[in-house]
Structures are given as C-alpha cells and as structure tokens.
C-alpha cells in the first residue's frame, strides 16, 4: 500500500474529533476504509504524539476494523483457488491495516515502558500494559489467521518481540486475565495466554500440505485445542519427549524443535509446548470416528472436523524425527516437488503470481 498520502492529524487533539473521524470512514467500501485507516496510522506512528491520544485513536478504530474484517470474510467465503487477483489485493489492504495497528500499539507500549510511572499510578500503568499487550496478540493472531485462510505467506515481522512480550505478561501475572474489546464485532472475551497458544499452534501447522477445507476446519477448531495444550517454563531435566517444541523468548520466530541447550539451561529463558494432552485427545477422536464408521467428528465447541484433518494435526503436533543429512544413494531416490508458482515461473520467466509487494521498515523500533 502506498505510504505517501499525507493525513491531517489535528483531530488527535480532541476525543470528539477522533470519534467524528472514525464515524466518517466509508465502511461500505472496505478497501477505501482500510486505506484511510492505514494512512492515518502510518502518519501517527511516526509522529510524536501523546500516549493517551495515540491509544484513544487505536481503540476507536478497533470496531471499524472488525466491520472491515467481517466484510472481507464474507467476500472470501465462497472464493475458489487460485484466488482472484482483485480479492488478493483487497486482502492485502486489510493485512496492511492490521500490521499498522500492531505497530501503533507497539509504539504505545514503548512509551509506556520507557517512561517511569508516577507515584501512585503503578496500577494504571499495569492495566494499560495488559490492554495494549492483548491488542498486539489479538491483531497478530488475526493476521496469521487470514494468511492461513487465504493461503498467503505471513511476514516474519509478525513475531517481533512477541515471545518476549508474553513472558513479561506472564511474569506480571497478566496473561490469564479475561479482557474485553468494546465494539469489536465477533470478539469473545479471552486472555493473552489463550491467544498466544492459538498463534503457536497455528504456526506449527504445515498449511501448504492441507486442502483449503482442512485449513478452514483447523482455524475454526483452534479454541478446542487451546484448552488441552500447556505452556510450561523450560528447566533442567525437563521431559522433552512429551514437549517436542519450544519457544525462545530472545528470538523473533515461531515454535521450534528444542536443541541440546534445553538440557543445560538454568533460567526459564524459553517455554516448552506440552502437546501430550492434545495428541491423546486427537487419538481418541480418531478411534471414536473409526468405531462409528464416520468420516468426521464433532468437537466440544460443536465444530465438525474430518478424520483427515485430525490425522494432519497429529502429524504436525507430535515429536518430529531427527533430520537425516545423508546423501541419497541414487538420483532415483530423490523426490522432487515443484509448486504451481514454480512451474509458472519456469514457463513464463515471470515472477510467481500473488507475491505481496515489499514493505517499508516500521517507523519506530519495537519495544
């Protein structure tokens, strides 16, 4: 999305004018509304603004963002693959808007954490930290969710300081408090831990190996798996056999297979994902479906999931075999997989279709 559109930010000085600006968004045209929000946020995020005004604008824009997301969901509900370029451009506009919302909350968080709280305001600052952190996790999940449903790669910048932010919320015992989001349509009260678990579980799924229907089932059923997945601190002697994935707080990436460092670590610098209960539940559901000669089962939330999707989840969330770097004995033993974009590139010498344009760096460093 172009970033050279200038926006008059004088409305930030008055909460009433902020509301008037938000009420004037053309929500009937979701591309136009997403562009206006994006350009306003781009200017605000790189312009010094009072923390309170910045946060008021971000919170005021939230309900409008939910309307845009719902309209995008309806537009993409019956879309077939490959996705039409027009729909992809529209989805990219919305993703850009969500990313700029995250950058805005990250800037508010930076101001919040770098300025020492005044005497007697510690509780207020702690509440703001909880609210702002929740929004960062929530919008990050929405980006990952939309990327999965539309089969579009998600930028690695989504992980910037996300793991470290969760550990801080956990350390301050703010990660399990249920948080409201007034005006955000379709939002169900949740806490930071629940959103973070959904982000981690979604990041572990090899979406490229699933059919579109399976991805939709997976995204709809994430709440069921979150209830039986645990995050535990890493400590010496931890049983990694049942917890085959770890999240390192100092690295801006998703969950990985743990290395030998976990055996010798002294401080809980990372988290381990305990997927043992998830795998047990998946096994029970597969056995249940086999006994009933059914090809799909109902989860606790009422979401229907096919047995093939359950098997794919078992494969994604179980302990992964060690990598084998031995050279194949013959060329016939090598399996080559070429994607459709790769074939397109080979035949036309053109860039693979639907590649998102490069983005400029964030206007501010992330706290």
How would you describe what is shown here?
Helix 5 packs antiparallel against helix 6 and helix 11 runs antiparallel to helix 12. This protein is mainly alpha-helical and 367 residues long. The C terminus is likely disordered. The strands form two sheets. It has a three-stranded antiparallel β-sheet. It has a two-stranded antiparallel ribbon with strand order 4-5. The longest helix has 30 residues. It is built from 13 helices and five strands. A hairpin with a 5-residue loop joins strand 4 and strand 5.
Task: Please count the beta strands (DSSP E, at least 2 residues each).
Answer: 5
Q: Report on the biggest sheet.
A: 3 strands, antiparallel
- Provide the helix percentage: 40-55%
How much of the residues is beta strand, in percent? 5-15%
Label the structural class. Answer: mainly alpha
Low-confidence stretches: 260-267, 321-328, 354-367
Mean pLDDT comes to: 78
Strand order of the largest sheet: 1-3-2
- Principal-axis shape equals globular
Give me the strand/helix succession: HHHHHHHHHEEHEHEEHH
Rg measurement, Å: 22 Å
State the main characteristics.
367 residues; mainly alpha; 3-stranded antiparallel β-sheet; two-stranded antiparallel sheet; 51% helix; disordered C terminus
């Amino acid at each position: 999305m172009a970033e050279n559109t200038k926006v008059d930010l004088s409305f930030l000085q008055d909460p009433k004018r902020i509301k008037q600006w938000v009420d004037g968004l053309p929500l009937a045209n979701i591309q136009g509304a997403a562009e206006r929000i994006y350009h306003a946020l781009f200017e605000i995020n790189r312009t010094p603004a009072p923390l309170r005004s910045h946060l008021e604008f971000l919170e005021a824009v939230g309900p409008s963002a939910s309307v845009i997301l719902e309209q995008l969901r309806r537009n993409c509900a019956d879309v077939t693959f490959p996705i039409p370029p027009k729909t992809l451009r529209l989805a990219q506009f919305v993703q850009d808007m969500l990313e700029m919302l995250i950058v805005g909350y990250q800037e508010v968080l930076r101001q919040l954490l770098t300025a020492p709280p005044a005497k007697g305001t510690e509780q207020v600052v702690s509440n703001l930290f909880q609210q702002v952190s929740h929004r960062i996790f929530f919008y990050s999940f929405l980006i990952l969710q939309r990327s999965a449903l539309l089969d579009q790669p998600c930028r690695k910048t989504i992980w910037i300081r996300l793991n470290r932010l969760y550990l801080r919320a956990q350390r301050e015992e703010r990660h399990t408090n249920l948080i409201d989001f007034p005006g955000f349509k379709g939002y169900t009260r949740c806490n930071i831990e629940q959103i973070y678990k959904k982000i981690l579980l979604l990041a572990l799924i090899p979406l490229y190996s699933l059919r579109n229907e399976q991805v939709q089932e997976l995204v709809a059923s994430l709440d069921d798996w979150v209830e039986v997945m645990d995050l535990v601190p890493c400590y010496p002697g931890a049983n990694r056999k049942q917890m085959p994935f770890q999240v390192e707080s100092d690295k801006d990436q998703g969950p990985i297979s743990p290395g030998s460092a976990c055996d010798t670590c002294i401080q809980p610098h990372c988290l381990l994902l305990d997927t043992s209960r998830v795998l047990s539940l998946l096994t029970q559901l597969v056995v249940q479906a086999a006994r009933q000669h059914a090809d799909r089962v109902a989860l606790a939330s009422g979401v229907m999931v096919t047995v093939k999707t359950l098997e794919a989840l078992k494969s994604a969330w179980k302990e992964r075999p060690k990598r084998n770097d031995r050279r194949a004995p013959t060329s016939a033993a090598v399996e080559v997989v070429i994607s459709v974009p790769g074939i397109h590139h080979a035949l036309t010498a053109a860039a693979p279709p639907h590649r998102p344009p490069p983005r400029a760096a964030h206007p501010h460093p992330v706290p």
